[in-house]
Design a protein that fits this description.
Layout lengths: L6 E12 L1 H13 L2 E6 L2 E3 L18 E4 L2 E10 L12 E8 L6 E5 L12 E6 L10 E5 L18 E12 L3 H11 L3 E5 L6 E2 L5 E2 L4 E2 L5 E4 L2 E10 L13 E8 L6 E6 L12 E6 L20 E6 L16
Antiparallel strand pairs: 1-10, 2-3, 2-4, 5-6, 5-8, 6-7, 8-9, 11-12, 11-15, 13-14, 16-17, 16-19, 17-18, 19-20
């Protein structure tokens, strides 16, 4: 049997915003080899703000001043295992750095080489990446005082007016035992539910507990149910067309009450039965894939997806009276 790995996926989406009169020049400065702060009263704030944090009054671009390029570490933490979102693929430090000429600290990355090279009060100096786009990741810091050579600047480069980022989070968790047994059953073309020890109802797929009676269910409560069942509800989906859309034709998404179960499985997609012939009470059976695999399973799924089945087809049995399954409408 194939090994089922732990859940490991990244939820990510693009984020775009305009930069405004203060952050725009700040990012442009990073691209062009300068670090800017804003003079607010008798303080210089870096990274710069568009307002005075004391009273909320507006701070204009005329208040921008250059700071650094060196500074003092006032606090730090070591990142021993960087992720794909970090600026380095090797261990490094995040540090609160008070740049020379600034009165506040800037959080940024220090490529120190070793945790032994980091300390509060140490001096660090900026380094500019060879390729810069106008982002806070255009720069990083290293231990020392020596200022870098001024990087070359494209004389025709426009000021930075737009920020584009990929916002994401990596989610990792082990498959729960009840979920792992359910997926292992699917690999053997079996559908495993769990019978509640409280009222005898069979839950498919189970979440490891009976939510109505508030009792846990264990491996001893596992039961196999049929691959046949009755349609309890459905909707016709007409895909909205957009760039990258893979769905082009309308299809049905339904819920099915499997024989031997007391809860429905949802998210069953029907593509081979004409929409005008589909109805609540229709009897269906699963047609398994020969090459069942999982690439997007988690601990919260409530149905079966198309990595498991090729299609669902009519059994040829008479329809069930819809009134007999109305309590299972989803």
């Amino acid at each position: 049997m194939a090994q089922l790995p732990d859940i490991d996926f990244t939820l990510e989406y693009p984020y775009t915003r305009t930069t405004g009169p203060i952050i725009g020049p700040f990012l442009t400065g990073l691209r062009d080899g300068r670090i800017l702060g804003t003079r607010v009263g008798d303080r210089v704030i870096c990274p710069p703000l568009e307002y005075d944090p004391a009273d909320g009054s507006t701070v204009g671009p005329e208040n921008l001043v250059e700071v650094g390029p060196a500074g003092t570490v006032e606090g730090w933490t070591w990142v021993a295992e960087p992720t794909s979102k970090h600026p380095f693929d090797r261990p490094f430090a995040f540090a609160q750095i008070r740049l020379d000429g600034a009165d506040t600290t800037m959080l940024h990355a220090v490529d120190a080489g070793s945790i032994d090279n980091m300390s509060t009060g140490m001096r660090v100096v900026v380094r500019f990446n060879d390729e810069r786009v106008g982002s806070v990741t255009d720069v990083y810091f290293v231990p020392g005082e020596d200022a870098p050579d001024a990087p070359s600047v494209d004389a025709d480069a426009e000021p930075v007016g737009i920020m584009e980022h990929l916002i994401g989070v990596r989610i990792r968790e082990p498959l729960q035992p009840f979920r792992k047994r359910f997926l292992e059953g699917l690999l053997q073309k079996k559908i495993i539910g769990q019978r509640s020890p409280a009222d005898g109802k069979v839950h498919v797929p189970s979440r490891g507990y009976d939510a109505i009676n508030r009792v846990p269910m264990t491996e001893d409560d596992d039961v196999e149910v049929s691959g046949r069942g009755t349609v309890t509800s459905y909707t016709e989906i007409t895909p909205i067309q957009y760039h990258g859309q893979t769905e082009t034709e309308p299809y049905i998404r339904c819920s099915v009450l499997l024989d031997g179960a007391d809860t429905t499985i949802g998210g069953v997609d029907i593509r081979d039965i004409p929409i005008e012939e589909f109805k609540v009470g229709m009897r269906l059976q699963i047609v398994w894939r020969d090459d069942i695999s999982f690439d997007d399973e988690d601990n919260r799924a409530y149905g079966l997806n198309e990595s498991v089945y090729e299609r669902w087809e009519r059994t040829g049995e008479p329809d069930v009276d819809p009134d007999l399954v109305k309590e299972h409408n989803f």
